Amino acid sequence: MLVLKRECLTIIGTAHVSANSVEEVKDAIYEQQPEVVAIELDKGRYIRLKEEMAGIERDDTISVTNIIKENKVGLFLTTTLLSYFQSKVGADVDVKPGSEMLGAIEACEDLKIPVALIDRDIGTTLQRALNKMGFVEKAKFMYGLIASVLGFGDEEDVDIEDLKNPENIDELMEMFKDEAPSIYEVLVHERDAYLAGRLLQLPQDHVIAVVGAGHQPGIEKYLDNPETLPPLEELEKINDKKGIPWLKIFLALIPILFVVIFFLAFFNGINIAWNIYDFIIISMIMGFVGSILSGSKIQSALVGGVVAPLTIIHPLLAAGWFSGLTEAKFRKVRQSDVQNLGNIESLRDLWDNNIFRILLVVIGTNLGVSIATLVILPSQVFIPLFMKIFGG
What we know:
Blueprint: E1 9-14, H1 19-32, E2 36-39, H2 43-54, E3 61-62, H3 64-69, H4 73-93, H5 99-111, E4 115-117, H6 122-132, H7 135-150, H8 166-179, H9 181-200, E5 207-212, H10 216-224, H11 232-235, H12 246-267, H13 273-293, H14 298-313, H15 319-330, E6 333-334, H16 335-339, H17 347-351, H18 354-389
Parallel strand pairs: 1-5, 2-4, 2-5
Antiparallel strand pairs: 3-6
């Protein structure tokens, strides 16, 4: 690993939605004219910013179908949450997220200075975070999303420039670490190491690094102690979660129990035809009702109802995904829907957002089917059958 000359490195810690950070970055580049400017971006985000600078508009349709088929729903929700937070703060201070990176790119192009992309791929970062999170952390994370969008929870007026104060950063990072340790580990600690490692790999001597202020202390710590850096290859791996998936096991046991009761009743000579009819009808009604009450199209509710009996028996399927996919056919989700989350000020604004509407259909359908699975079907179908089998 190449050893960076620390005396020739300038690290600029920025607030990602700060107008002052934009000017600070550009002034430093024009004044020092370094050999290279390292910025906290990965290739994907760099390309998007470059396209934005050139006025290129992408087809911003988001394929909800692909998100569900590729099992990236959690990743999409995580990205949506982070986008919402930055868009909301950026709207409050009239600065677009990433403006300081745009400023750095513009200055480098003006002076013909190369740009080095030193951040880890955002997809890798978020997937590693999701893999580390337990059920409780994920639940708290989803609560944070809903609370932020709906506008309830603790809100304080924050001076953006105060976010660059080292004392405030330490306090914020410690609070983040306490609230979501797994996310903190991946989004902060791992990226501190990754950013520092990429800086050490730069062959140039005179370097300006533009990073978020929250990463600066960690990066400097690693640069002072390079022997503590983990291999960058390890930080780029996406490993499956280890441990026993107790929630999946529990959810799988419920349909298995239902099937076992049906078979026991059948082999004991009990006529189960009407019980099967009840199972199908109750499942379909609850899937349909859950979907339609969540504001879905009638077609989505019908799909949710039809697949409900099958998804109850199959633990890896959820009726909400089918009704949600159908709803997505009628509600095209665009990047603007993600960005507009930051502008939501009322329930009406929320209701008009296609992302929220599709997710609401998914949740509503699954809730209806869950009520059927955990409450109605046991009391109306399976407990009576169980009593007949054992002579109750």
